[in-house]
Predict the structure.
Amino acid sequence: MTQAEIKLCSLLLQEHFGEIVEKIGTYLIRTGPQPLRMIVNETGLVLDQVKKALCVLIQHNLVTYQLQKRGFVEYEAQCKRVLRILRYPRYIYTAKTLYSDTGELIVEELLLNGKMTMSAVVRKVADRLTETMEDGKTMDYADVSNTFVRLADTHFVQRCPLVPETPQSPDAPPPPAPTLVINEKDMYVVPRLNLVGKGKRRRSCDEEEEGEPKAKKQKQEGESSEPPPDDGIYWQVNIDRFHQHFRDQGIVSAVANRMDQTSSEIVRTMLRMSEVTTSSGASYTQPLSSNEIFRSLPAGYNIVKQVLDQYLTLLADDPLEFVGKSGDSGGGMYTVNLHKALASLATATLESIVEERFGSRCARIFRLLLRKKHLEQKQVEDFAMIPAKEAKEMLYKMLSENFVSLQDRRQR
């Protein structure tokens, strides 16, 4: 990592978790994996402080641990995960856009706490929503629970790995660190909970002071000593799924700008049909037939099957190749070329940056180099139709800013 990234990670940790957590997190970022004894010695903190700080970092997926062959545990900071704290507001806003205020608060609570049980999230969100309602109105646990299920079904939240239930002999010592596992089939399975109740409002300060003994008594009577039905099943935000959503939105916007709104809606439908079945790192979406796409189009788009096939043909024949045809069964099988689309978006961004910084003629040269890969100066002048002196100055400007590179092709 660069020094600027390390400094940014340090500031983020200090702002969100305080000085002690920041000190330990920054130390691990700078040094790499370290055992507990080394962390205590090098940071100068008390052992109990280090343990609590590591628990906080592990709770928020900012630090991972690994049991080494020699029997000790090493802790490693996840630098990229720390930097993603900057995107938390965007994750929360996306959840609000897709699943209203309830989805927004569910994602916010999970980001604030790292990992939580579903029952705890539902109760906390119901209380917060009740606070914003008019007097006499409350939020049902069932409504919040339904939104949580929808978030899990679309993979925006996922289960955390658990300690496997393996019987151990009473004489065998426990391992230095547990090994957490998760079955991929269970990552998005929501436990069946019969959560009955409504959100509660906070008591005012005067009511709390006057009725403190009674309030404590009611709290003790209302709370059960039994663990919740989903005890041990923790959930976290699936950040990769949010990034996949941002990627899909970028592809849809690019198609709308290049063609029209109907084409972008067709691509949006294809991406929505594949969002759960296609991994975030896949090159292509799952092949979809024309008939499947037609049945999945939004109700507001009243286009006939023949028009849809024409649009799909135009998308498949487009030079950008955002959509590709992979077969003829079911009226034609089509996929979205994710890597090709992202490469085109990145190229367009680079071209716009060069044009904004150096002008349209430099952008023409830069676009030419992107397409041809390698060109001599004379070839640049001829292909770009720019006078030799100007072309030389523009190439030097971009070379000095590291937008283009110079390679010696002479035979030695």
About this structure: The radius of gyration is 28 Å. Residues 359-407 form a domain with the Arc Repressor Mutant, subunit A fold (CATH 1.10.10.10). The chain has four domains: 3-77, 85-165+178-192+232-237, 240-339, 359-407. Residues 154 and 174 are 37 Å apart (CA to CA).
